[in-house]
Amino acid sequence: MAEEKKLFKVTIDNITIDVEPGTSILTAARMIGGDVAPPAMCYYSKLKGSGGKCRTCLVEVAAGSTADPRPMPKLVASCRTNVMDGMVVKNITSERVVDARNGVVEFLLINHPLDCPVCDQAGECHLQDLSYDHGKEGTRYEFQRRTFKKHDLGPYIQLHMTRCILCYRCVFTADQLTNKRVHGVLDRGDHAEIATYIEKSLDNDFIGNVIDVCPVGALTDKTFRFKNRVWFLKPVNAHCECTKCKGNVTLWYRGEEVFRVTARKDQWGEVEDWICNECRFEKKKTSDWIIEGPAHISRQSVISQGHYEKLVMPKETMPEVMGGRQPRLLMDIHDVSGVNRPDVDLSQLPGPAHSTDFPKQS
Amino acid sequence: MGRKLLLEKAHVEGIRTYEVYRREGGYRSVEKALKTMSPDQVTEEVKKSGLRGRGGAGFPAGMKWSFLAKPEGVPRYLVCNADESEPGTFKDRYLMEFLPHLLIEGLIVASYALGSERTYIYIRGEYAWIVDILEHAIAEANANGFLGKNILGTGFNCQIYVQRGAGAYICGEETALIESLEGKRGNPRIKPPFPAVKGLWDCPTVVNNVETLAAVVPIIDMGGEEYAKIGVGKSTGTKLISACGNINKPGVYEIDMTISVEEFIYSDEYCGGIANGKRLKACIPGGSSVPILPANLLLKTAKGEQRMMNYESLSDGGFATGSMMGSGGFIVLDEDQCVVRNTLTLARFYRHESCGQCSPCREGTGWMEKILKNIETGKGKMSDIDLLWDIQRKIEGNTICPLGDAAAWPVAAAIRHFRDEFEWHVNNPVESQHRNFGLAHYADPLPVPVTA
Lengths: 362, 452
Known about the structure:
Chain A is α+β, with helices and mostly antiparallel strands. Chain A is built from 8 helices and 13 strands.
């Protein structure tokens, strides 16, 4: 008979759940889901050693455990604190937590450029979501925001250091996925930055995943840069035979064209399977992939506007009202109109259409 | 004259060399501990002595030692924290420079108690010349059989290594120190796990301050119970105070924690009074990160009692009216000093030294410095003072390591006690650029609460 595992009972925001020993408070809260789950900007369940730095996931422990019901004096980082049996945690029900979290969000934003209108991450940015939830409408910061010397990270990855919140996820990714990490955090304090120190491009295989783990627009895909807004794209799940990775990806379409390839993400915005650089940067044709279907996008996301996961065909009523007869085409307007010229493909023009693009017909 | 245990022999000529140190009774504690006591007995003596960590937090050293995990087959480490970088604190420098063998002796005994066969001294990078002194002392100890293999024929092996830091204040935080010692970036670790379980190279580790480890020598020499008789209450033994600022005799003093703050500042044996006949305005009694106190609260507690130089009395009244013993960096400010400027200096220090790992400290320290700079240069607004208060409140307690607290406390205390000086700066932007606020009412006697 298999030995029965003892489960720990933990109460988060008055909801009780049984979890296995060794579970972090954050993971337990995510199991409950909804508003109970604290936001996490630096923690990444698939990266060992991540978490504890951004302080957005701070929670109050009102009772440590059944054995020792004393409350913890300080707020704790829920991503790096394991549950105990009988622990009582307060997240959004604690005023202290809400106050501290608002403070942390303010700190994260004072030096952030807030250049969302020109940022490729906008629409899928965790800092954007976080500031909608916890930020103030105005800033109390009256000083110049921090800037950095620009570093070139090569042909694939674009670094915008001003947007970085120093979550260290990309450092852990490079450590744990690639064969050699060539970038890291230089300097310290408010002038700490992500860089390679000597100008070096990031091109180790699997390094592209830093784009997916970056919670803000600090690391973006150069092959996708300024090509489109993510909310105009349709995410479609697809896979391919890849010798290096599992080949499970999301293709981002606009019309027929694949604008970018990313790894698939779960409901917490975390990558499900890491993908290799070749899948991410090179395979940008539909023929490279086997399409599975539209990817699921949360209704809260702006990307869900105009994205339909299921196609419901409207009922055809014409034959019904016409007693079963199909409608007949009386005249094709293009046959007689000179306005629309099907022989000129507008999408192939380099710029806006001009009269010279329409040679006079004899 | 207070009793001296650590610095008693500091001025004996040639005490830096092994011969003189040994002649003056050095290394007796090693002989006593290794030959007549078990490691647990040594720990027990330190527990009995009530010795509290001298690095700043004041945690009982014996307790810390007894928390050390002792799994089979895993090495344990003792690390001596000599990364003394707090503005105002320079006691360890003095101790290591003049009495290197005292530290080595303490380290050998502590290593024996903890079972550490490789012991490290992590020393502040700027103390470059002290590294040579220590390494010379270690070589002498090796040559005389107090270090190395089979020390004094007891079968105990121990070697001490000196590692220089690279100039970061944050590496004085014990987990950042361990990271740095491992050759990594000096970012504090997230606790738990504590170093007593998973420290250096994931092995159980104890990190102690230089003065704490040096104090082990008199504890073993005289016995823990005898040691505990010195001092008062839970403040046992002697403490090194590095006094600086506007005093007649800056320097390192050893006190037995039974004298009052007033006596310490004004007696000729210690600081010798305020320099140039000025009056006392304020004092930071325990190194830059502890709350600053105005003269009236420094000399008397809120209850109207004499404030003494020990852990309990200095922290009497909590942060509302008290401060902390901290690391013993005693900074005195006279009536010509500007508290706003002083606070700005400290805020700049903490901004510069923040490791940048967690957001409140990284962003908040810089923000506070900028606001303080505005106020100091006459560009401040009245709302800035409340904003400063709000920022420090949101940093304190929300960071990974105590550097966030250390950055928040001086600002909080300055606003708490010297708010009118900040307001004066805001209201008199021109005047504040060429004149100081002066002593004002900061030395006035406090209203003593009437007790029924």
